[in-house]
Amino acid sequence: MPLDHGGATTTEGFAAPAPAARGRAAGGRARAGGGRARAGGALARACDDVRTSGERARAGGEGGQATVELVALLPVLGVLALGVWQVAVAGHAMWSASAAARTASRIAAVSGGADGAAGAVRRIAGRRARVRDADDGAVRVTVPIPLVTGGDLGTFSTTARFEPQR
Question: Which domain holds residue 82?
Answer without folding.
Answer: 74-160
